[in-house]
From TrEMBL:
Domain of life: Bacteria
Record-given protein name: ER-bound oxygenase mpaB/mpaB'/Rubber oxygenase catalytic domain-containing protein
Molecular function via GO: oxidoreductase activity
The keyword Transmembrane helix is assigned to this record: no
Annotated ER-bound oxygenase mpaB/mpaB'/Rubber oxygenase catalytic domain residues: 3-244
Amino acid sequence: MLWSLAGDIRMLLTLPAALAMQVAHPAVGAGVDDHSVFRTDPWGRGERSLTSLQLWVYGGEAAAAEGRRLRALHKTIQGTDAHGRAYHALTPAYYAWVHATGYPVFRHAQQYLGRPFTEAQERALYAEWLQVGRILGIHDRDMPQTIEEFWPYYQKVLDNELEETVVVKELLATDPQLPVPDRGPRWLRLLLRLSWPWLCPRFARVRRFLTIGLMPPDARQAIGLEWTDAQERTLRRLGRVVRAVMPVLPERLRFMPIARRARQAARR
């Protein structure tokens, strides 16, 4: 399941929803607020996160090394959240929640961007997501081991933990102070510098729309995010376009580089 899903460019549309659910947990949000460079280097931070995620699925032996790197990176991330409670990034409940968000977001977004999963596919995807969690150093005792156990756990976190944290508000802001992207060829960077005052607020509105829309409705409600019927209709129209376009694209355009290279190597 993940071999086909994780490297698909449609996944890029789902990442903001998963990130917002992660940082809606006060401990995770505080860790990002205190220690992340998402404000000063959002594009580099996003690129590194995407590369890391791709390695978990397509990296082979590099996947285990990446898991060890991430745990080492998080060892020093600690502090106090907005409620005055101490946190540490490797506290099992917090570390597991960050990983857990991927499953419901994948499942929900698939209803718009692809064909809804069958029950068998949902179970297979969850089993694979657990395996990725083991690569990241998440013990089986810290994650529900079946779908039947997952949903009560998930609902408990929604009911008792999630809120609209400072970081969530920043990620959903429509007037962010985002630096100009500095990736890509020179002509593109120049074009972005010239057009950024016009482009940035429009990018922020699209990001907010996709973040809230591709977030499962129960998580959206738990955080207190508004979503209208008109927005739902727009998202469904967008989904129809995506579903029509994706099958006709060549593989080199449908998959991100790490995934594409791994898929090509597997066919040799």
